[in-house]
Design brief:
Blueprint: H1 3-10, H2 23-31, E1 40-45, H3 50-63, E2 68-71, E3 83-85, E4 88-89, H4 92-106, H5 113-125, E5 132-136, E6 154-157, H6 175-183, E7 190-193, H7 199-208, E8 216-218, E9 223-227, E10 233-237, E11 240-244, H8 252-266, H9 274-280, E12 291-293, E13 306-309, H10 315-325, E14 332-336, H11 344-348, E15 356-359, H12 371-377, E16 384-386, H13 390-396, E17 404-408, H14 411-420
Parallel strand pairs: 1-5, 1-6, 2-5, 6-7, 7-8, 13-17, 14-15, 14-17, 15-16
Antiparallel strand pairs: 2-3, 3-4, 9-10, 10-11, 12-13
């Protein structure tokens, strides 16, 4: 039986893709013997930067010879990416066996796709009891299926902004509500809070966490960094200062994410050395986050230009992406595909001085907006075009040598790009 056949079956166990409740996943985990109990957890919540922060922390822990299991969502190219055990992506055969076992225990009970995957992760993670489990919380943390653990060693709050508003009532589609959903149910452990997009957001997070007795490690209040004129980073917290190299990721926002990971690592009390940290942040493995495509089928269509893919899909992501683009002294061309439920005009409003914008259809995604409709919504943009496919867009863009091309707007699109390439 193929892995895809099993996945297709699991997707039919609930009529909704998302149904915000913890009862079903708790019930299944109880049948599985509550495998989530008594494991070592680091919980990661936020809107943007979760994946990159997790990968930075993972790289640091690996340098310190500390074994990790990691659960993230969504995947970019293969569902196996969501299931990391002993620092290795699970094999197809092992994942198939795991999912069949959990499916049998579930015995046809109604449960969402994400919930049964989450239960499967906990079930397999229980075989590696000494490992640290880094858990990314999807959508809203309070009723997310990952929020069934009762203790952890640390929580991380990455940058919070407006996203997934369609899952909130119209009168609650605010930053205050999102912050409440993501932070009010955090456990009573140490909480590291990343740099936020505004002082108001930071203030609202503090207010939301005010009744939580955990030690809070807040950007600016408890840790900070400066970029020296020689390009090294001077990081400082209660444990002292440390001179760090630049992380091997592009963009100022990736320095923010790496600094958050450093703050977390230094608060774990796991004998992580400064050398582990310095080495780790130069070895971060991150896909579809301002990733340069240097070879392959799509790169061959634009050999004289740098080609980047980035999965950002909300206003906060657009802002930090544009901040990076503005540091480059060249023409920038954007190829854009987005899901239908996103705020398309708001997303693109953050991009300045763009030489061309080409909208496309996202292959294999029925919930995406058609490229022609996206073009019509963005008709104020100069040099605006529509092409049906990624390949057609790359062939039709009029570029000069050293121009850059960025494909963005959706993690699903990023996955299609990487698979095509």
């Amino acid at each position: 039986m193929t892995l895809q056949t099993i996945l297709n079956r699991l997707q039919k166990l609930h009529p909704k893709e998302i149904d915000l409740s913890l009862d079903r996943v708790k019930n299944l985990c109880k049948k599985l013997g509550n495998p989530q109990k008594d494991l070592k957890y680091i919980s990661v919540v936020g809107t943007n930067g979760k994946y990159s922060t997790i990968q930075a922390l993972r790289a640091i822990l690996k340098e310190a010879n500390i074994k990790c299991n990691i659960y993230t969502s969504p995947h970019i190219q293969r569902i196996n990416e969501r299931f990391i055990f002993n620092d290795e992506e699970i094999l197809d055969s092992d994942l198939s066996d795991l999912l069949v076992k959990v499916e049998e225990v579930n015995n046809g009970e109604e449960i969402t796709y994400f919930e049964i995957l989450t239960a499967a992760y906990f079930f397999h993670a229980s075989k590696y009891r000494e490992n640290i489990n880094i858990i990314e919380s999807g959508l809203f943390h309070r009723f997310d299926a990952t929020n069934i653990i009762d203790k952890n060693i640390l929580s991380i709050v990455t940058a919070i902004g407006l996203d997934h508003l369609d899952w909130l009532p119209k009168n609650e589609q605010t930053i205050e509500k999102i912050i409440f959903e993501k932070t009010s149910a955090l456990l009573n452990s140490k909480i590291v809070v990343a740099k936020q997009s505004s002082e108001n957001t930071q203030k609202l997070i503090k207010q939301s966490l005010s009744s939580n007795e955990a030690k809070k490690v807040m950007f600016n209040d408890n840790f900070s960094y400066l970029i020296n004129e020689n390009e090294f980073i001077y990081f400082e917290d209660e444990f002292g200062g440390i001179k760090l190299p630049q992380p091997n990721l592009k963009g100022q926002f990736q320095i923010d994410n790496s600094a958050t990971a450093v703050a977390a690592a230094r608060n774990l009390n796991l004998n992580i050395t400064d050398e582990n940290i310095k080495s780790g942040i130069t070895k971060i493995k991150s896909i579809a986050r301002l990733q340069e495509i240097k070879s392959g089928k799509l790169k061959n269509l634009c050999k004289n230009n740098q080609l980047f893919v980035d999965g950002s899909h909300n206003p906060l992501g657009a802002k930090v992406l544009n901040d990076y683009l503005q540091t480059l002294k060249c023409n920038k061309h954007i190829i854009l595909g987005m899901m239908a439920n996103k705020d398309h005009e708001e997303y693109m409003s953050y991009f300045k001085n763009i030489s061309s914008l080409t909208t496309i259809d996202i292959p294999n995604q029925p919930n995406s907006i058609k490229g022609k409709d996206l073009k019509n919504k963005l008709d104020k943009f100069p040099n605006l075009n529509y092409e049906k496919s990624i390949e057609d867009a790359l062939k039709k863009i009029s570029t000069k040598k050293d121009d850059i091309i960025l494909i963005t707007g959706s993690l699903y699109l990023a996955g299609e790009v990487l698979n095509l390439n």
